[in-house]
DNA sequence: TTAATTCGTTCGGTTGAATCGAACGATTAT
DNA sequence: ATAATCGTTCGATTCAACCGAACGAATTAA
């Protein structure tokens, strides 16, 4: 039957429409059918069901994602066990350090920012809530990796690699595993311009009572202000205190 | 062929799974198939595609919604034209009044909270970001309705009704239309315990340069503290100032 | 103003993906 | 140790997904 490029499950097609509407704010039926290589009538057919279910809305004859996603996103975030308590602690950390404080968790082998709190001098990094980022070149990412089984870490590295985003990025597996070992012994992870030039960070992992990793909290700022000494001497203790509070609250919810 | 209850589009089935996972945090294949009246193998089939595309994740053998929804939700919110500027103004309003300040927009005939800022004495109402709420019994909702064409308002009331959530809720269409007329003349909308007993609110609409409604901002608090006089004398002006700033920024983005 | 595109939408015939039930091994409860 | 329940796989059947054609509406070009 010649070339039939649209040999795809219906589910993937629906989610493909959602993905296309993530990239472009609003799309018409024809634009969408071109982009996904499906018939115009097929695109219309699926847009119609998405519209009926309230997942897309129509502006004139353009379709865009509805705010239902905002509700689902907030819901999903609120279900992360440490979210409530960790948010409070991250706010306090930002106030105490005047820097940027972050809460992040691992999902699907990537790191996801759940919450940011900006202190008075906080840098404004390009890290929107909900974005997925690699773990190997972030302070919180290395803190999280340090608490995963080696097998799991290897599987993550197989899947996502160790892309180089700055001259200091760790791109060698053995180097990373050595670093993770050091993080386990000292209790915190440090990022020396490994993600972005000029930016330092320090993070600690948050553990459940069974030792499984729940997420990480970190402080980030310009490398001039966040010297390695300042981070290890001052911020490691601040983070450790927050870490304790969060872990206690998660493991003993009756204290909350 | 006897009873076949699952006469449904595949798209609706996929979105039905997402909806089921909104209600319950994590579900297994069998639980989901029971809930949606589909075969176990069918539930598994769709969960698998959702998993492949990263929209659900597996904990052991339970499935739950992934944090991709958090990213999509944030993205969707950030695309609302007034969001950036209005957020700043809502923060200022909370600081100036020490009450709860809110930004909301209309979508699909309902109101959606986009942002909340809590002043020092702010009440903690059950209004999570992204939740859809009726428009007829909220200050911001009436402010928005007052700027829609009568035809559109009627269609919204047809679809969603005027449910009574307190003794003061406006449940009569004519009463509502009279109120909307008054709101248009005075420029702001007031909520006197129409949604929740003991809670007052005041809101102004935000308009585009073509006169179309973009959303509303409001201040809410206990009825003892927010007397009608206090709201009309003090808060109406505060809201009006924020309204002007937001409208100027939206209509002249070069000032931003 | 008119003509020509381009758009979203509808519809019916065709086909292949969605669906189910049965069966599997793994896990858990009894 | 046994029974029950779970997630997962697989093949046969069928019905929903899919396409292309055609429509009117809206926009653009002439």
UniProtKB/TrEMBL annotation, chains A, B:
CDD domains reported in the protein's UniProt record: HTH_ARSR
Keyword Transcription regulation attached: yes
Domain called HTH iclR-type: residue spans: 8-67
SUPFAM superfamilies in the cross-refs: GAF domain-like (SSF55781), Winged helix' DNA-binding domain (SSF46785)
Matching InterPro entries: ArsR-like_HTH, GAF-like_dom_sf, HTH_MetabolicPath_Reg, Tscrpt_reg_IclR_C, Tscrpt_reg_IclR_N, WH-like_DNA-bd_sf, WH_DNA-bd_sf
IclR-ED domain ranges (all copies): 68-252
Name of this protein: IclR family transcriptional regulator
